[in-house]
Design a protein that fits this description.
2 copies of one chain form a homodimer.
Chain A lengths: L7 H4 L7 H16 L15 E4 L4 E10 L11 H17 L4 E11 L5 H15 L2 E9 L4 E9 L19 E4 L5 H9 L13 H9 L5 H9 L4 E4 L4 H12 L2 E4 L10 H6 L6 E5 L2 H10 L6 E7 L5 E3 L2 E2 L10
Parallel strand pairs in A: 3-4, 8-11
Antiparallel strand pairs in A: 1-2, 2-5, 3-5, 6-9, 6-10, 7-9, 8-10, 11-12
Helix pairs in contact in A: 3-4, 3-7, 5-6
Chain lengths: 331, 331
């Protein structure tokens, strides 16, 4: 489990800049280059994906980088797993907006001998499962594997209800999660050969490993939540504590978690900070409508995990302060 | 100037696969995952960019990877140059389709200490010059700099005339190029400190260096060519000989070049094989219409360089066989 910064000393070095500081600086530059911020109905940098108006339906755009040794370790899974996950993590961002994936571009840079065709086979599997069509890409040599996926989605049925932004939650909203958490981190722990769960609980290792190697984007859940009047959503990529904190920050609400559904075989620590589970956290002011919509769609019932509060700086789990955690790069 | 393969022996090694072979294999996999090839009006993998139908206007999608040490050398130019070029090369692909850039996603992976904000400043410059809005991206650590840009363009005015595919040329079409060639390769040669042009011709070094470091996508030229009834287009990224050969191959026509406009200070070799000039090669059955449209738009007159012929395997320059050349990666 990666905590806020693996090397706090480096983070404080002169000239070293934190990922989120850099993103904010770049956002300002790019907004200035555009001559203005995003117009009404559009969302640019700062959410799981961007929403732009092209034609009648809003279009949702997102991109993700997967870097060998940082996000994937080809020694832990097959190249097909790396490919599958590369596409799914981008589609998960679209799911967190309530958008349906339509097209993706896939670029790969890799050292000689990398089995790019097997990575491509994994991408094709994920594309077939989700109905997302790979329409282009680029290939290059490089000293390390980098897979970059850009995905294009649509808000089916037109601009209303709007995309599920991180900023839409209001005090009183109930927070739900679409599934159990910590499985990916526990799967990674097992793949690395670290002995079973510290708390001694059982758990099916292949299932846990699959949660890490073959995450599934919750595409239908995102769309159903959007149509059921949800107010905000985010996918659990960096860890529940970090990701739900982003909803709190963007919406200006506090986060009071009651408890979280921990995947059997995983620890609470892994559920809160492990990340890469790619479940969706959904905020809504109409919880019974959300539950009914999930049931009608044949989806597993989302689990209530807490509420949004009016105390904007609140981040608690069962009344105790919840540390944000989450992985961040520095440059 | 890079020729077909820097290491022919490696290319023949078992397990090593050529870039274009790999692209074809991936194309087949992704098409199978989609359940079918591209429907009428859409173009997926295999051209400068993809055309998809979303809403009323067709949307054009493209992506390019820029890898430190492969495509850019931060020792030769500033980080701003690397950023500027990263965006422009993707927009050049849109230009070669006759599309107008609208939005781009920018992802960067880099080692600690990389001046990502300065790279971002160069991207912002290119975005402001072209009216393309950066709406998202991703950042990651990596042992090498990788900038991945995905760009979204539109065919303004709707689906007719269609995008300028590589496959639209027919025998008898005249081939034009939008500017002089070889400048980028000559600029790279000068930046590397190799003494002036082997043929002794003069040339402004700063201008040549700018052609390499700060290429400009021929966006207006691409749009004007599309509206003036051009049949095909490609941008000169890998080298004229290689790129015009792709039009020949995709269209099933021969290519008979009469001559090429060589940038002052560059060699004919650099003009034919250097690449990275990002001028457009345009094929048209209505050359006077193209010339008139360029004049009306206030653009420099495109230079006629040859014709498309019915002898599909013909690749000649002034009657002599033209070697394809061009850079290709292998894996």
């Amino acid at each position: 489990v990666e905590r806020p910064n693996s090397d706090p000393a480096r983070e404080r070095s002169p000239g070293v800049v934190d990922e989120f500081t850099l993103i904010e600086r770049l956002r300002l530059r790019f907004e200035k280059a555009a001559g203005a911020g995003s117009p009404p109905g559009e969302t640019w940098i700062g959410d799981d994906a961007a929403v732009v108006a092209l034609g009648e339906e809003p279009i949702v755009l997102t991109t993700d980088l997967v870097v060998g040794g940082v996000h994937v370790d080809l020694a832990l899974g097959g190249p097909e797993d790396a490919g599958y996950k590369s596409l799914m993590v981008s589609l998960s961002d679209l799911a967190a907006m309530g958008a349906r994936p339509r097209y993706a571009l896939v670029s790969m840079a890799a050292p000689p001998g990398t089995e790019l065709e097997r990575i491509g086979a994994g991408i094709a599997e994920a594309a077939a499962e989700t109905g997302c069509v790979i329409v282009g890409g680029d290939l290059s040599g490089a000293p390390v594997l980098v897979v970059s996926v850009a995905a294009v989605g649509v808000l089916e049925g037109g601009p209303e209800p709007p995309a599920l932004l991180r900023s839409g939650a209001v005090p009183g909203d109930t927070l739900f999660v679409t599934g159990t958490l910590g499985g990916a981190a526990a799967g990674l722990r097992r793949l690395r050969g670290v002995e079973g769960s510290p708390d001694g609980s059982a758990g099916s290792a292949p299932e846990l490993e699959a949660r890490f190697l073959r995450p599934r984007a919750r595409i239908v859940a995102g769309e159903v939540a959007r149509r059921a009047g949800a107010s905000a959503a985010v996918d659990v990529s960096d860890g529940l504590a970090a990701d739900v904190g982003r909803v709190g920050e963007a919406s200006g609400v506090g986060i009071a978690l009651d408890g979280v559904p921990v995947e059997p075989g995983a620890t609470l620590e892994e559920a809160l900070y492990g990340g890469e589970d790619y479940e969706l956290v959904v905020a809504t002011g109409a919880p019974s409508q959300l539950l009914a919509a999930f049931e009608e769609a044949g989806l597993a019932a989302p689990r209530p995990i807490g509420t949004c509060t009016a105390r904007a700086d609140q981040r608690t789990l069962a009344g105790e302060v919840l540390e944000p955690g989450g992985w961040r790069h520095s440059f």
